[in-house]
Amino acid sequence: MSPTTARPAQAGLYAADLDLPVRLEEALALFLDRRRAAATAIDPAFGAAAGDLCDFVLGGGKRIRPTFAWWGWRGAGGDPEGLEVDAVLRAVAALELIQACALVHDDLMDASATRRGRPTVHVAFARRHAAASWRGRPARFGAAAAILLGDLALVWADDMLRGAGLDADAAARAATPWEAMRTEVLGGQYLDVFVQSTGDSSARAALQIDRYKTAAYTVERPLHLGAAIAGAGPDLVACYRRFGADIGVAFQLRDDLLGVFGDPAVTGKPAGDDLREGKRTLLLALAIERAEQRGSTAAVAEIEEAVGDPELDDTRLDRVRDLLDDLGAVQAVEQRIAALTGSALDALGAGSVAEPAASRLADLAVAATRRHR
């Protein structure tokens, strides 16, 4: 261990804490370099496609999930100077590959054209097909490539966790939240497309999707994963899960607001894309509910006609935005975000979370729910 890792700094923070973003990137880059080489050994064409997936993973993202997992581990007594630090970093970094799978597949299902200001995976591969004048339909090739690369990311996530180097007991404990998380996020993805298809505009349906599509694998299970690796008891796991579920839903509600009102230059996605994609969010559910209570059938009709309309232009988008605001739906969602953040912080304060993790998690909660992208 180097002298720098042995010295605490900044109110209980150690080098591994302070260097966390860099250490996560290093762990991902090393793993992906090896996987890219293995894919190239199968065939250069597959290697090139796998390389695009590697570039996608390393080309952006806030690393929210592994950051929560790390602080979950630290708050459960994980030793930032211990010999297991590198193994823990590799284990929590694997969450970014779950995220990559979800994003690639989600963009395909939503027919999104951009992600992080760049073409989505299915669009990029369709354009490659068209530029090379290959046989068949470019869009079909792009969709197939996105499905396969999303699957590859999921496979690699399992590989990275299993090969992280955790001791046998920690690896066995980590399996419980990991297995639950994978099923929950896929269940949430299915509910998302199911609700879009059925047109269920209820608040219950929207919150069910938020709970499983976002909260479970963004905050709740990453915290659970970190706690499990550290060998936390059931009380701390319950604290983390309550905190994580509330912050995770609040995180998604902020995302819903940004999806309608956000600045494309900041969010990396076109304004109103969630409406065009047909997302049934709590924001829309509350607006429709309030319009119905007022007997405003015209408002309900205008909102419903905008949801899922790929040709929604800026003029109509502005009218829908005004309706969402005038009906009080925006304020109601902001209040829900504040209430969830408050209840999450209460749960965190009541738990036996070790410092500096407790303070860091509180800071992360506020940052996640007040962000602009």
Q: Within the CATH hierarchy, at the fold level, what is the topology?
A: Farnesyl Diphosphate Synthase
CATH superfamily: Farnesyl Diphosphate Synthase
Q: Could you estimate the helical fraction of the residues in percent?
A: over 70%
Write down the domain tally: 1
Oligomer state of the chains in this structure: single chain
Q: Which shape, going by the Cα principal axes?
A: globular
Order of helices and strands: HHHHHHHEEHHHHHHHHHHHH
- In terms of DSSP E residues, the strand content is under 5%
Largest sheet: 2 strands, antiparallel
Structural class: mainly alpha
Number of DSSP helices? 19
Placed side by side, the strands forming the largest sheet appear as: 1-2
**CATH A-level architecture:** Orthogonal Bundle
Low-confidence stretches: 1-9
CATH class: Mainly Alpha
N-to-C terminal Cα separation, in Å? 38 Å
Please tally the β strands and state the result: 2
- Provide mean pLDDT, rounded: 94
What is the radius of gyration computed over CA atoms, rounded to a whole number of angstroms?
21 Å
InterPro entries: Isoprenoid_synthase_dom_sf, Polyprenyl_synt, Polyprenyl_synt_CS
Protein name: Polyprenyl synthetase family protein
Cofactor: Mg(2+)
Family: Belongs to the FPP/GGPP synthase family.
